[in-house]
Amino acid sequence: MPLKPNGSVDEDAAEENVVGEISDIAAGSTKSKTFDLELGGEYTIFCNIEHEAVTGTNGGSDTDYVSHYKNGMVATLTVSANN
Question: How much is the pTM?
Answer without folding.
Answer: 0.69
